[in-house]
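Reviewer 2 asked us to include a model.

Predict the structure of this chain.
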Amino acid sequence: MFNIISEMLSYTFIVRALIVGVLVSLCASLLGISLVLKRFSMIGDGLSHVGFGALAIASALNLTPLWVAIPVCIIAAFFLLRLRENTRIKGDAAIAMISVGSLALGVMLISLTTGMNTDVYNYMFGSILALSESDAVLSVLLSVCVLILYVLFYPRIFAITFDEPFSQATGTHTKIYNITLAVLTAVTVVIGMRMMGAMLISSLIIFPALTSMRLCKRFLSVTICSAAVSVVCFLSGMFFSYVFETPSGASIVCVNIAVFIIFSVIEAVRKIIFV
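Predicted model (structure tokens):
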């Protein structure tokens, strides 16, 4: 096993993917807790489809993908929040509209320009080979910024997650912190898409949070557990991907599913024993 790990670390592109992947996993797992509890967890899926559309536009115009996708996803996050406040269009319906529309737009643009090639497959399902050195540097910087902002705003994020009306009544600018949460999610989704793909990136947001909630009940303990589960699942998925030559994104998701099932079984057994 140690020989395999040593062999993996001898490849620069894998080391690059591991560094970025661990940071993205941390960001996604921390943000995912609030998104799941606020019943807005599918925002990651919606923003990933928006990101795919933005990447298609960047490819058609020969622009740097990340520099196009990040501002587009941030604008989409603002738009989703506005739609969420609209009583005529609920949050899940808004995400569905934007998600399907962006995906269709991306496919149309690609089919009319470069065609369905390997790059498109990488955008859809992810590839560690698609992560260039410049993308890695930008991803690390953005991930560190997301983590720092999350730590700084942790008390406010906690407040708007559990009781937004009360927080607003006590003078907290809930809209600002909701926007902050959406922007951080948009950035995390975009920088994780290169490795996980538009179809799978939302798994990093949803699974660690749901898994940790099987056994942990306090917000802080869920946060710590979610971060640990996310990083362990990512590293395990990358290891299995290398050993069995399977797609990295799908391998990471499968490990997350397995860990979720294990935690669910432990929760069920614990309830039986302590009833």
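The mean pLDDT is 84. The chain is about 85% helix and 0% strand. We have added this to the supplementary material.
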